[in-house]
Amino acid sequence: MIYHQQIFGCSRAQALQRGLVLDISPAARLAFIEVPLAITPKLWRSIAPDDPFRLEDPRLLCLCWSTLLTLITHTSTREEFEPFRHTVWFESVVLGRRVSLKLTTHPGDGRAPVMTLLTEAEAGLTAS
Question: Residue 66: pLDDT above 50?
């Protein structure tokens, strides 16, 4: 079973269509992240509680740069390797708002790598 089916009960494509994850790949590419990246609506609400999701929002680029810098500097607070999945936990400040995050790299629907960024508090969305 692929990761999106485990946590969302559907494929990544279906999770995107249903709004269970929000594709921020265009913003991620601006931060030199070439792997498709999606965030959960809960994460969006934690950094922009009163604003609608927009790909042009500068908070997304801030989030992407924070993710990239955490990965290339190996400054995560926790790391977990499993077959076909790598998860890192880290803290970020997105335009003055501190958030605890976890990033999971895993196979997507076509088995190519994708990344999903969630709030640390989203229970059950990572291995125990």
Answer: yes
